[in-house]
């Protein structure tokens, strides 16, 4: 264990401290399958690259994330961890992090929007030098405050506005001058951050960890692919073989979900707005059509786009009786639940754990899994530890890179350095007992030259 000193109660808000023993077992179980991160943690414990720095991380509070938190703490960081999704928090893990490792945690499974943003305000009050985001909520709040646009904060974000109002407009502009940088874990978050950069409001460098090849190739494709199907099956006990499964979006997450569903015998239909991705899906052997057509024939619908209202009123109205709908994109906006409720005459929550029934005016029933939130975390346990090993190793090393290059990185979205990518992949291969070839000197010279002809 890293620490037995509990953080101040003012920096913690957890639900079930009595579950710490169970949480510790889960953290240790995940740690066994995260050897790359473990190696980084050992080095961080020796070198302390994050000493003297305050960090605020808005992430899914799971057993895998706990091992990232331990790594950052081993590096010397004064870390505060809050939840990035109300349904992904594992209360037992949160309890163990506080009791066994002395890490400040503000995260409660099922927390409402007001509590969520109260925790965001607590993270801001930690006055971090470095942030880590899973969806850019933390950075967005910081930007609204820094540009003194508290009017842009929603009603749900009232706790953040109240925290910011403790300071004068001039002070608000100075609040985050000490920020060294931020790491972003999700596609949705990177999209938001690039929009901030485009609008000229991003005030510090951000490393797009999500865009690392060792992240989207593996975490998004294999992690999301497996854990999404896992969540659906846990919640419904549905046999996928022979079913028509509609996957909205054919990015890396959509590819992973489509492949896994096909592997279980489903007839997979892909919907897309990108002609290139649609063409790729078609050449990968999937049926491709607009959602207006797929809605009429699908049995199960899975959204993984990162955009809003992918499944809308007109789609609900033509769906089969008993159609199942779920989302594996970061935010709960991909399914237009407001429109669904407006078409509903009878709502029955929890017909199974994490499955709600909506009986429409036309008499048909639609089932929503996980309240429209990330189904792999709402109805299951998220990505396997083995794949998060690479993503969180990249997070930790990108944080170290940001610190080492303090003041040298422009206030924009940066890619993960190639040397970090290759270190993570090489180390992961080694932990799997896999060796690969190296180019000979002659091959290196040939690859770097232009003089050789046919």
UniProtKB/TrEMBL annotation:
Pathway: Amino-acid biosynthesis; L-homocysteine biosynthesis; L-homocysteine from S-adenosyl-L-homocysteine: step 1/1
Lineage summary: Bacteria, Pseudomonadati, Planctomycetota, Planctomycetia, Gemmatales
EC number: 3.13.2.1
Cofactor(s) this protein requires: NAD(+)
Record's GO cellular component terms: cytosol
Keywords, comma-separated and alphabetical: Cytoplasm, Hydrolase, NAD, One-carbon metabolism
Domain of life assignment: Bacteria
Free-text comment on the cofactor: Binds 1 NAD(+) per subunit.
UniProt source species: Thermogemmata fonticola
HAMAP family, per database record: AdoHcyase (MF_00563)
Entry's family note: Belongs to the adenosylhomocysteinase family.
Function: May play a key role in the regulation of the intracellular concentration of adenosylhomocysteine.
Domain S-adenosyl-L-homocysteine hydrolase NAD binding: 220-382
Protein name: Adenosylhomocysteinase
């Amino acid at each position: 264990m890293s620490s037995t000193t509990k953080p101040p109660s003012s920096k913690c808000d957890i639900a079930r401290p009595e579950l710490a023993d169970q949480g510790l077992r889960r953290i240790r179980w995940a740690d066994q399958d995260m050897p790359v991160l473990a190696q980084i943690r050992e080095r961080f414990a020796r070198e302390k690259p994050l000493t003297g720095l305050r960090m605020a991380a808005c992430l899914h509070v799971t057993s895998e994330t706990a091992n990232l938190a331990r790594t950052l703490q081993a590096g010397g960081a004064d870390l505060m961890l809050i939840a990035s999704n109300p349904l992904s928090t594992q209360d037992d893990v949160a309890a163990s992090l506080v009791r066994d490792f002395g890490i400040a945690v503000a995260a409660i499974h099922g927390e409402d929007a007001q509590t969520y943003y109260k925790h965001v305000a607590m993270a801001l009050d930690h006055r971090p030098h470095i942030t880590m985001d899973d969806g850019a909520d933390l950075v967005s709040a910081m930007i609204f405050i820094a540009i003194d646009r508290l009017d842009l904060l929603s009603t749900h974000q009232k706790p953040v506005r109240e925290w910011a109002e403790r300071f004068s407009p001039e002070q608000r502009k100075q609040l985050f001058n000490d920020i060294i940088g931020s790491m972003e874990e999700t596609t949705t978050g990177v999209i938001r951050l690039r929009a901030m950069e485009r609008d000229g409001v991003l005030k510090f460098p951000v490393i797009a960890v999500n865009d690392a090849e060792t992240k989207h190739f593996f975490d998004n494709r294999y992690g999301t692919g497996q854990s999404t199907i896992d969540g659906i099956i846990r919640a419904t006990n549905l046999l996928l073989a022979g079913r028509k499964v509609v996957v909205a979006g054919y990015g890396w997450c959509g590819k992973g979900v489509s492949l896994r569903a096909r592997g279980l015998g489903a007839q997979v239909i892909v919907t897309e707005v990108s002609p290139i991705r649609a063409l790729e899906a078609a050449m990968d052997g999937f049926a491709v059509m607009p959602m207006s057509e797929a809605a009429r024939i699908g049995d199960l619908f899975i959204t993984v786009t990162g955009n809003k209202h992918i499944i809308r009123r007109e789609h609900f109205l033509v769906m089969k009786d008993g159609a199942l709908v779920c989302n594996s994109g970061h935010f709960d906006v991909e399914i237009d639940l407001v429109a669904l409720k407006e078409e509903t005459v009878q709502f029955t929550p929890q017909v199974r754990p994490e499955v709600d029934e909506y009986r429409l005016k036309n008499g048909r029933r639609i089932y929503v899994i996980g309240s429209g939130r990330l189904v792999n975390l709402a109805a299951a346990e998220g990505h396997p530890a083995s794949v998060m090993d690479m993503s969180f190793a990249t997070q930790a090393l990108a944080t170290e890179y940001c610190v080492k290059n303090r003041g040298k990185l422009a206030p924009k979205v940066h890619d993960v350095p190639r040397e970090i990518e290759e270190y993570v992949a090489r180390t992961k291969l080694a932990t799997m007992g896999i060796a690969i070839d190296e180019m000979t000197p002659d091959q290196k010279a040939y690859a770097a030259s232009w003089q050789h002809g046919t």
